[in-house]
Structures are given as structure tokens and as C-alpha cells.
Protein 1
Amino acid sequence: MTRDAAIAEARDYFDGGGFVRDLARRVAIRSTSQDPDHADSLRQYLDDEMCASLDALGYVCRVFPNPVADAGPILIAERVEDSAFPTVLTYGHGDTVRGLDDMWADGRDPWKLTQDGDRLYGRGTADNKGQHSVNMGGLAAVIATRGALGFNSRILIETGEEIGSLGLREFCAEHADGLLAADLFLSSDGPRIAPGTPTLFLGARGVYPFEISVNLREGGHHSGNWGGLIANPAILLAQALAVITDGRGAIRVPEWRPASLTNSVRHALAGLDVQGGDNAPDIDPDWGEPGLTPAERVYGWNSFEILAVTSGTPERPVNAIPPTAKAFCHLRYVVGADEDDIVPALRRHLADNGHDKIHVEKSASGFLRATRLDPDDPWVGWAADSVTRTTGSTPAILPNLGGALPNDVFSEVLGLPTIWVPHSYAGCSQHAPNEHLLGSVAREGLEIMAGLFWDLGDRESELPVGRR
């Protein structure tokens, strides 16, 4: 009954094929929240997969309706061993994006797990079925070895993350002092900083979506008869977009620029090398905020992105000046930005640069707040020490993920220190055809999580929080 034995148990779960079999069964459930025709599959994933698997580990499972009408259900699973023990909340999402079935290479079926070398292909393998399967495997290894966890465990699985985690905030607020009361949030999503580098991240950049548009008139007008006489909204929009950043994409809206990188953030990011793996694009060294390292640009700074631009009929151009033009954009931002001033600041900046025909509005959905646990928090050191003990190498510690997650629900609504241990990598084709999980990363992830869960229940271990 040792820590090494628990880690070996988790490793054997992968090497013996158990992990792949479990993940294949989970991938086969078409639980995409982006397609209403598969709404029943969301409940099926919780009932047939999560409840069945967690019941076998001694958890009490309850599936709740979402507080938001027509949004997916939410599972809470509890294993309470002793009221004096600390309680750990773990999270995952059982929903996926659309399968994009006809776009996968080599005739692969997104709903059938396919192994090719180190890659496990299938929708949800990286985001997020594979990741919470790793964590469940780590829990199972500790229970099999010790006969108990040695701490209280609560697991929340939602089924609406890919459509903005609708209802999650309201659900957590309702159960903050009961079913979801905990001492630590420890979960997995997103990518490692590099495929071979164990990683911890402590929050997420926020994402603020908005639309920039020019609406001049009703209907298009012949470009021969009216060209040179009436303003072209696409030209006006292009000129407006050009003043938001400089030629290398560095932000020019004063209020959008972070005041500074804190010393703890700079220290955490020092020397980190951002790598996406074989599928990743090359990093452009001359893009983004000058004077910052790539790690500082993506984890410690803000970035403005144009996601799509439309004017006229691109699929069928005609000789007419279009009446409108629109750009769909977002700001990825770190802690410290004034969220209420993001759109007003842009409006002021555009007006100051002479763009008075531009309309800016926040998009209806897709907003997530920026959050970050201080890298100097004692839980961070504890987790880093555990990972180092398991792997023999110091993990990369990111103050926040470059992308967005509903971390604000756990850090603000539930008031928990948040630590994420990602089991994927940036080149995993997440949200795209050919999504895959690296078997080598999943295998090491099982070892890491078994070590973390063992240490949480070790009576000899000194945790940053006192026993309840």
C-alpha cells in the first residue's frame, strides 16, 4: 500500500488496455451539445457512462436538470469518507462540438475511437472525455491500492461547455454551500505548454466577443453607376479594424493594454518554451506585443483577434457596392482588465481616429471572465512538488491558460483555489476534424493524477488547508 503502487496501478490501467476500452465506449456516445438532435445523448452520457463508472468506485451520483431551459443536465457525484477530511472538487464536460463527420482524414469516424501509433482519434478524446477519463483512472488507482481515497471527492460533469456552460454559474451558486462545498478545485482541460512537459495552469484568460459593423443603407447599388459617389462599408470597416492594432498585431487601444506583468507571473513564465507539437503552426517571432516572450504574450498579455469578416455575397460576388459590413471579433484578456469598459473603450478609440460610422456591440454569447490563482499560492507549490515527485521533472506553471474556461465559476462563485492539470497538447485538432489524444500523455497523466490523489489522502502529507 504505497504511492508507487498506486502509480503503477494507474499505469497498468493504460498498458492493459482498460483506458482505451473505457474511452472508446465514451467516444461512441454522440454527446454533442451543438446539435439539438443529440440532446438525449447528453443524458445518456451521464447515466450510462459516468454514473455507471462512478457507482463502481463508491460514488453516489445524482443528475440534475440545468437551471437554464433546454440546456444539458449536470451530474454531481460524491464520495464522502470522513467529515474531518479535506474535500476536492473535480470537473469535466461530457459534451463535445459537432462531429464534422465527413471531414475526417482516412475515412475515420469521429464517433469510433481509432488508434494510430501514439494517437487516439475520436471526437472528445482531447476535449474533454479523455481528460476526465484520466482523472477517474487516477482516482480508481488510489482506491484500489489504499482501499480508500483518504479525502472527500466531489465530481461535477456538465454537458454544455461547448455552448458556453449555460446554467453552470447558476447551478454552482445554488449548491455552493452544500453539494459543491470543497477546499480545492483540481481538474483537467486544455493543452500542456508542450506535449512532453507536465503542466499546471491556475486559471484562464477571459474572452470577450463583440461585433464591429457598418450599416449605411438599404440594398446594394451598381458599382459602375455609384462607385466613387457613395461610401463603401467594407472599406470603412477595414480602415477601422486597422487602427485597433499596429502592423504586427500589438494592441493600440490604450485601455486594452495590461498595466504590467506582475513579478509572480513573470517568474512563473520565465524560460518556458511554447510548443504545439507536430500539428501546430510555427510561432511568428515578430507578431504580437514587442518585448515579450511567446509565453508572456499568450499567458500574460491581451490579444485582439478578428474571427470572420463579411460584406456583400462572398460566395457569389456581384458588381454592387454592399450596404453593410461586419467583423466578428474577440479580445482575449488577462486578470486586471475592466470588462465593463472593453466595448466603450473601443468606441472611444475608433471615434478618436475619425471612424464615426462604426457600430460596436457585445455578442450575445461566448463571454467568459479572466481568472488566475496567484502562482505563489501554497496549493501551487504543493501540486508542483507532487508532480515533480511522480515524473522526476519540474512542471511548467502557467498563471492562466491562453484560452478560456468557466474557471470563474469555481474561483469566484465557489471561492476555491483552482489548479488544472492538462492531459492534451495544442496540436490535438481540438474542435476540428481529426481530434486526438496522445497515448503517451494520457499514460503519464494517469501517473500524475494517481500521485496527486494519493498525496491528498496521505495522513503524513501536510496540506495547505487544515483537515475539516
Note: The chain has two domains: 3-204+370-456, 206-258+302-362.
Protein 2
Amino acid sequence: MSKELTMDELLAGSEITALTVGDVIEGVITSVRKNEVWVDLGARGVGVVMRREIGHGQALDEGSSITVSVIDPEMEEGHALLSMKRAVKDRGWDEVQRLFDAQEIVEISPYDANRGGLLVELEGIRGFLPVSQLAAGHYPRVSGADKDEILQKLNALTSETLRVRILDVSRKDNKLIFSEKEAVKDDMQARFAELTVGDVVEGMVTGVIDFGAFVNVDGIEGLIHISEISWERVDNPRNYVKVGDKLKAKIIAIDKDRLSLSLKQMSEDPWLSEVKSFKKGDVVEGKVTRITPFGAFVQLSASVEALVHVSEMSDDETVDPEQLFQLNEKKQFKVLDIDTDNRKIALSLKDAK
């Protein structure tokens, strides 16, 4: 009498391998019921997909092929427990890992945002694009780190398609991080190579803050420091530029990933022409604009500001500038020195008397 072979022995003697947890395989739907879908796995038996493992929007027609993942290769009843959801996710992880390894650039459309960044789904896997990984053109430049304004700007990106690279992926930790900066890095390096200090570039203001304005120059971030906005003394950059303004500026420095720009150097320095009307030894009238412990700043003309040092205010060494001057007060001063190279003029109050 011949010995009856077990299923494992039959499988071992053929090219058909036994099912194991995590296998992703193809099958054909044989029956669709209210809470389950039965699947023919061919020589590997029969399996069932419970309703919670079907997922949304997947076709459930009898006779159609589907991809499933094995949760349990053999239940007590003899059939396999399967998941359609997990199969999609398993294949998704394989694909995002491949994209990460190849450092491919992919297009994504964020489905939501929070104050930290954008929520993204790729190949059925949910991931995150942090604010810090947005390219210059999309980075939310706001004054005072206003969280509501940041969120508003990020929400506006959920209707856009972004080109990104995968920065980090870990199936074990369920982590998928994207970077727009990495996707444009190669283009940025090529553009940086074409730029030199002194070039005039055109860009759009993307943010105005207390110390200057950020400008998007063809995808490259530029900063106009408050000292480079105007030849005049600038107290508030918002009085000179606003978000959305298109302007031309001169490159005064090229840093690792940012341009330092100057708006004021697009025109001649009016100081140089106005200072010609003053000579050493002249007694001139000026308006006090700032008072400090070491002296007072005095406006001599629209663009020329000078300093009267505390030592030139009085023969009394204990003199207090705040007791001697009032803001916007006009007084007579003597010009002690004019340093054209450094744009400085020294005045004396005591010698003007």
C-alpha cells in the first residue's frame, strides 16, 4: 500500500512553494460576499479576504485578478487569510525604496498640511515633507514666525504638484520623508555656476521681515539685507518692498545656497553727490535723528548723516547726550572731518559756538 503524501511533501517535490506570511501573490476572485471575498490561488490553494482588508476603490468582480498579501498561510479551516490592503502597501514600500535607492525625482500632490509641513501619499504610503525641505520658491517666509500665516501658505501648496526626492524611508519605522530642496539641488548648482558677484538679477519678493526681504530668483533664494534696501536709513523694510513685488537687484555675495542682493546699488549713491556741498571747517545746520551714550547722529541732508561724538559736545566730560539733545532738534555744528571712502562725517557742537 502506497504511503499518503502530505501537502508539504507534495509542494517540496514540485516547483510550487508553500505560502508564507508576507508573500504578495496573484489570485482570481471566485466569490464576493457581504463580509468576505474568496480568492483562487491556483495550485497554492484558496484564500479569503475579510471586508476590513479589502480597501477602498478596489474592483471586486468575480473572475477578476487581484494582488493579495498573505496574513496567515493556513487557517484551521485549511484556507489562507489574505489582505488586499496590505498587498498594496507592501508593493508601495518596495517601490518607494526603489525610488529612494535610485534617487529618482517624483511628482507629488500634498493632500493636507500642518504647521510643520505637508502631508503626502505616494504608492499608497503616507509620508511627510517638512517645511525645512521646501525649495526657496515655496518656503513660507513670514514675519515673526506667525504660525497661522505659515499654515495658510502651506495649505496653498496642497493644490500644486511638487517635484521631490525621497530623503528618508524606513518600512520598519513606517517613515517616509520627502525633500523638494534635494530635487532642485542639481539645477540650483548649475544656476549658481552661471552667476557671479556684480550680476544684476530679477526676482520676486517672497517675504519681508524685520532685517530685510527674501527674493526668489529663478528658484534660488536671495536676501536683501535691510542695509542694502536703500541709500536712506531704513527702519522698516515693509515701507520699501512688499510680497509679490518684482524687482531687479545686484548680487553682492554668493553663499552656499543663497544670494546676497542689493537693491540700493542699482542706483548711484546720492551721498557721494550731496557730500560735495560740505567742507571741513564749515559750520552747518543739522537735525538730531538718534541719541546714544557715545554721541548723536545728525542729518545734514536727505542722504548725509553725520556723528557728533560725546567728546565734541562740551568741554564738560560728564555731559549726558540725552540731556543736551532732543530728537528732531536742529542745531549748528562744525565739520571736523569728511571720510569719503567710509562715508563718515565727524561733527563738533562745542567748536560751532
Note: The longest strand covers residues 200-209.
Protein 3
Amino acid sequence: MHPQRWLPDVTGPPRRLVEALRLAGPSTRAQLVERTGLSRATVSGHVAELADRGLVGPAGPAGQLPTGGRPAHLVALTRRAGLVVGIDLGRTHVRVAVADLSHQVLGEHVAALDVADLGAARVLDTVAGQVRAELARAGAGLEDVVGTVLGVPTPVLGGAATAQGTVAQSNILPTWSGSTPALELRDRLGVPVVVDNDANLGALAEVRWGAGAGSRATIYLKMATGVGGAVVLDGSLLRGTSGTAGEIGHVSLDPSGDVCRCGNRGCLELIAGGTALLQSIRSAAPHYGDLRALVAGAVDGDQVCRRLIADAGTNVGIVLGGLVNTLNPDRIVLGGELGGAGDLLVEPLRQGLARAAIPAATEHLTVVPGQLGAHAEVLGALAVAFMEAQRLTG
């Protein structure tokens, strides 16, 4: 199968069934009737036809994305319908995952990489190599890929996930400013690629499969080295005019504070971001060398670690108050490495919200840690790939 021509000979009602399975994943025939508007007899007949062609089969019992248990009567697209690739670039890592269109993850690999210190060209050369390697481990090749989504830890201009997206003037990835990573990666791989912000992808994954499931209005925070954010309303990202909606890390808490890398003073990220917490702990407990260790120390009862995480949570809650008053969400999901602190971060954040938000805006609001951990962003990339496969391949 050529990646630019995804199932070109599947048309009419069978195509509607394929599209429904691509978007929703494994489904019962009754669900397919509801999602396509076709009759039960038509659905059953065309499912059998697609099964005869090897494009549809029973849903597998293992290795699925985190959507829960699966009864045996569900049907799903097979690997013959194509594969998608999700890529999560952090400041210090690259994570690649491969999935089929039944929403089954076939392989995932993470490697350390100094993304923030290297130019886009060198990083994307490495990413392209890792994509090829992960496909090979799954027994596949680039000819099987119908869509690839790349997540980057910086705002991307161009609205929705796009192949034309340009990295905004970036203080996180300064050497990437003005680059078009989706186009550059496509040139290296020869497959369709779109790019999006990593917090946006984490938000979509948590809403679809994690702690945001069932929510109509979710604020997602990625609390790691910095503080990123995204807003999902009725399943769709709120992006704003230039793609920066939800980025609360650069809200100023102290107009006379230190200068932030964004050019403002006293930004939330300077107070509650992981880099700031590690700077603060160096004098009191220098043996905590990274965020994972700091969070583990807090969970184990270290009072210095607990104080830093609690103060971060309180300050984030205060900044979130205005956003909660404006959007009136029903859920806040805390992701990133600091999100792993659980209630040690959640409870102070709730206290900060109580100080800054009006009671009516928080009456039906829940604040929860994310459920997908370090996999959230790459799973979000796969989620977008499932949605974008038809558009990408024409």
C-alpha cells in the first residue's frame, strides 16, 4: 500500500464503515449502525465484505491504547489498512510509537536526545532513523504508514495540526524558530506528517483515553521543565488566533520579578516550572538532580520536596483562577513529571483555586492527576493521526 493512496478502491458504504472504525477504533456492529446511519443488514454485509478483503477482523485482546476492556464481538481495522506513527519531542528526549488503525500500539521507544541544544536538522535526522527502526521492530516499513504526527514543546503557528506549521519564535527551542519540522520530516521519510504542540497532544490523549474522559470542558496542564497548557472543549482543542491558547506558564505573577525567557517578568514558569524547582532545591538538598527524583522524594516524605511542590501547586491554582472563571471547565488534568506527585500537587492547587476563582465556577470542577503519564503526548500524536489519516493521504 502506498502511503499517499489510502484504500483508494474502498468507496460508498464500505468507506463509511472504514472511516468510522478509523476514528472510533474497535466497534460493535450496533455502534457502526449508529455512527454511519446505515442499516444493520447493510453494516453486516459490508463488514463481511471488508473481512474477506483482510481489512477488518475481530479486535485483538491485548496491546490496545488505554480504552479499557474489549468484548470479543468488536470488529476493527487490520494492519493491512495501514499504520500511523506518533512522535513526542521533549527538551531532552524523543519518543516514537507505531499503531495500527484498530488503535493498537505495536511498539514504542524513548531515547535521550538534547533536543533543546541541537538544531532542527540534526534532531529530525535522528527522529527519522528512530521511526524507521520502530517500524522495522513492528515488522513494517514506511510504505505501510498512512499518517505521522510530530509533537514539539513549543507553540506552532498555523492553527490545527498541520503540515505547514511553523515553529513560533521559541525560547524553548531557539534554534528551531521559523522552521517547518513537519515538511522537513516528510522530506526525510516520504510519508505524510503534521506537527502540533506537545501540550495540545497530551490534552487530547487524556480527554480521549485518560483522566479527562467524559469531560466537556478540560484544562490540561503539562507541568515538567516548564508549564504548558491546553484547553479542550467538547472534544476539540481551543487554539486561539496564533495557537497559544491555554499557555498559562507565561502569565505574570510578579511584574517586578525576574525576567523570564519569554521577555516578561515574574512568569508562573519562573516560580512553578520544574527548572525553577530544581534551582531552588540545589542549596537545601542538592542530591535531587532531576524532577523525577524530586517527585519521588516528595512521595517518600521529604519535607523540602513537599514544600516546593505545594508552593508550585498553590501558585498554579491562583493563575488558573482567572481561566476557570472565564471558561467554567468541569475538569483540570495535571500531566507532566510534576503531575506524578498526585495529591501533593492537587490539594495545594485546589487551595490556590479557592483563593482566586469564584465559588460558582468551581462548584462542579474536579482537579485530577493525569492517567497516561509520560505516554500522554505520544498517545495524543497517535490520536491525531487516527483523525487525520484520510486528509493526509487524500
Note: DSSP finds 14 helices and 14 strands in the chain.
